[in-house]
Mannitol 2-dehydrogenase (Ruegeria arenilitoris), 500 residues
Amino acid sequence: MVERPADTRPVQLCQANLGALPKCVLRPEYDRAALTPGIVHIGVGNFHRAHQAWYLHRLMQQGAAQDWGIIGAGVRAYDAEMRRKLLAQNCLTTLVELTEGQRRAEVTGAMIDYLPPQEDNGPLIAQLADPAIRIVSLTVTEGGYFVHPVTKGLDTDHPDIRHDAANPDRPRTAFGAIVAGLRRRRDAGVGPLTGLSCDNLIGNGQVLRQAVLGLARLSDPDLADWIDTQCTFPNSMVDCIVPATGPTELELVRALGIDDAAPVTHESFRQWVIEDAFCAGRPDWDKVGATFTDRVHDYEVMKLRILNAGHQVLANVGEILGLNTIADCMADPLVSAFFRKVLVEEIAPFVRPVPNQSVADYITLIEERFRNPAIVDTTRRVAFDGSSRHVGFVLPTVYDALAASAPVNGLALVEALWARMCAGTREDGSIIEPNDPNWSDLVTSANAARDNPTNWLEQTQYYQDLSQSGAFRDAFDRWLRVIWDQGARQALTTYLGAQL
């Protein structure tokens, strides 16, 4: 790592100061003033800026994609603070790649503006109606698509969905804004655009299509038909470990000589696999490492069931035991052995290999990435929104395993550890602060399950009928009792069959 001299101040990040940045810092070589918009991105968090925006930036560095600039957007009041920070530095972002013993900084400039969030989403709707916009992309989290927990269709009873259906010109949600923008495009004869989800969901394009079409159909069936026939919603798989930004990351960037109010740290690995179904054109992301394929489903199943489910395998027991980061979890011999056994024996049998990569090799790759001590990815961040992440990442394998009469002992232990974590305390007595949109209900169920473990599985919004499955229910009951009576480490030791 090259750090700034001790007697110099870090350079305030902005367009005018790019030339003054330390020579070791990569920066945009294209004329940002000449960029024109082509993409609206909703949900401008760390992941988007380290992943999709980076791919576009790299294309721009080659002199391509100059008409695909990103307009940032948000639909909640808290997006205003990120907008303030980014506009103050001309929407530039410092990315710091972290590998063990090395740090490399790059300033990216693919984002050219950030819309003001408003309650009626007026600026976002107007931008989506602009003929220059050909893609609307989203990172709004796995739980942000209003999927009904039982039917898996659009949750039409959700208050925000009901509001948008009754007030289509003043929507609250991202999907309501997209519908309103598409209505204006249709009425003006502008033509359709592509909706591109970049969230960790199986069939994320199909889920986005369901949200947009379902909402449109509630207020304007003719518009829904137009969207259905004219717009496209490609599935995609995204991957890069991107920790949250806090004081440590801010100081790290300052040590590199840059004063950035919203920097992003990330690992060296990136992957983006996309279905090539863009109704209004697209950037050539494949020229900078993305993969266009009709096998997105196989890639996403491998990633979601191994990396994302693996995160849940580690994070819940890590929280219980007071292991602060994913790297700390992997450095713990008992926890890392638990991780490998569950993935190899119970998850891998239900994952298909992808071109040029076996499932076994992928598990080894994930272990290496998770062990990287330079990536300070907290167990708290990874455990966030477990009510969406367990349903989306872990439980699909449980259902497949039960259908095949395959073992679910380790998967039941994973769920028992989540139930124990949701009781809200660690084994050392410290408090686990609320970490889920449904935290209060989860805490209530978790404490009721201490005496009767089946109470946890009776949360049918997550577990459907798993409380009726003898094999899973009995294993879950046994593990949760062991965890409460003897501790999480004893449960892991018993599962592994040996004292490590």
